[in-house]
């Protein structure tokens, strides 16, 4: 499953839906969804899946527009935060308490330049879309090929 978090009418916050649409076109066997910043919708979407890959925009101190990062719950929490006040570490912790988590979770974030009102990604974030899609495809292929996750791999931090 691939879940794109965001709002396409808030500029770079639309990275999640943009990547989700690209994955949907590439692989019809992958369950692809988009959600806003509602924790309950995220819990419903990933509940009971083998692999959930999330894509979200991030903002905060040290953000570099278009930078791609990879995070999994077995790693230290990311420094940058969701661009819309959704704390994925807290949602995952809540899901664990409720017994509503995927077997494996991988989060890809892209640092946003602009999350104001408007449509269309900024150039730096738009340029990151192919990288994110490739990274997600690699996660899915690895999962399908080995049936298990990439436990222990370092966080991905690729400036664009």
TrEMBL record:
Gene3D superfamilies recorded: HybD-like
Record bears the keyword Electron transport: no
Swiss-Prot/TrEMBL keywords: Aspartyl protease, Hydrolase, Protease
SUPFAM superfamilies membership: HybD-like
Record-linked CDD domains: H2MP
GO terms under biological process: protein processing
Keyword Cell wall biogenesis/degradation: no
Annotated coiled-coil segments of the chain: none
MF term (GO), any: aspartic-type endopeptidase activity
The family this protein is said to belong to: Belongs to the peptidase A31 family.
Protein's name in the database: Peptidase M52
Classification lineage: Bacteria, Bacillati, Actinomycetota, Actinomycetes, Mycobacteriales
